[in-house]
Automatic annotation (TrEMBL):
<keyword id="KW-0694">RNA-binding</keyword>
<dbReference type="InterPro" id="IPR002715">
    <property type="entry name" value="Nas_poly-pep-assoc_cplx_dom"/>
</dbReference>
<protein>
    <recommendedName>
        <fullName>Nascent polypeptide-associated complex protein</fullName>
    </recommendedName>
</protein>
<dbReference type="GO" id="GO:0015031">
    <property type="term" value="P:protein transport"/>
</dbReference>
<dbReference type="GO" id="GO:0003723">
    <property type="term" value="F:RNA binding"/>
</dbReference>
<keyword id="KW-0653">Protein transport</keyword>
<keyword id="KW-0813">Transport</keyword>
<comment type="function">
    <text>Contacts the emerging nascent chain on the ribosome.</text>
</comment>
<dbReference type="InterPro" id="IPR009060">
    <property type="entry name" value="UBA-like_sf"/>
</dbReference>
<dbReference type="Pfam" id="PF01849">
    <property type="entry name" value="NAC"/>
</dbReference>
<feature type="domain" description="NAC-A/B">
    <location>
        <begin position="4"/>
        <end position="72"/>
    </location>
</feature>
<dbReference type="InterPro" id="IPR044034">
    <property type="entry name" value="NAC-like_UBA"/>
</dbReference>
<dbReference type="InterPro" id="IPR005231">
    <property type="entry name" value="NAC_arc"/>
</dbReference>
<dbReference type="Pfam" id="PF19026">
    <property type="entry name" value="UBA_HYPK"/>
</dbReference>
<comment type="similarity">
    <text>Belongs to the NAC-alpha family.</text>
</comment>
<comment type="subunit">
    <text>Homodimer. Interacts with the ribosome. Binds ribosomal RNA.</text>
</comment>
<dbReference type="InterPro" id="IPR038187">
    <property type="entry name" value="NAC_A/B_dom_sf"/>
</dbReference>
Amino acid sequence: MMRGGGNREMRRMMDKMGLDMNELSNVQEVIIKTDKKEIIIAKPSVTEMKAKDNSIFTVTADSYEERELEVPIFSEEDIQLVSQQAGVDEEKAKNALEEAEGDLARAILLLTTG
C-alpha cells in the first residue's frame, strides 16, 4: 500500500519497469473507429505511458458522442468481381457499387455503358 509519497513511489516503480508517463497537452479530440461506429471524445485528458516497444494511451473525458457508421452492403469479393468484369480499378468498382446500392449487375452496367 502506498502512503504519503505515493506519487513519488509510483514514479520510482515506473522508472524501474522502464516506463515513462507523459500528459499530452492541448488534445482537442480523440476518435475511436470500429467497423460499425465512431466514438468522438472532445477535449479529453490523454496520458501516454511509453515502454520499450509500445505506448499505452489513457483517455479520460466527461462525455463523448457515439455515431453509427453506414455499413457497406457489399464485400471485398463484390468489389473485386465488379472490378474484373468492368475492367476498372477497385476504387471505381467500389464507387459504382455505392451508387448502385450494392447491386452487382447495375454497378457493372454503370461502369461499362458510360
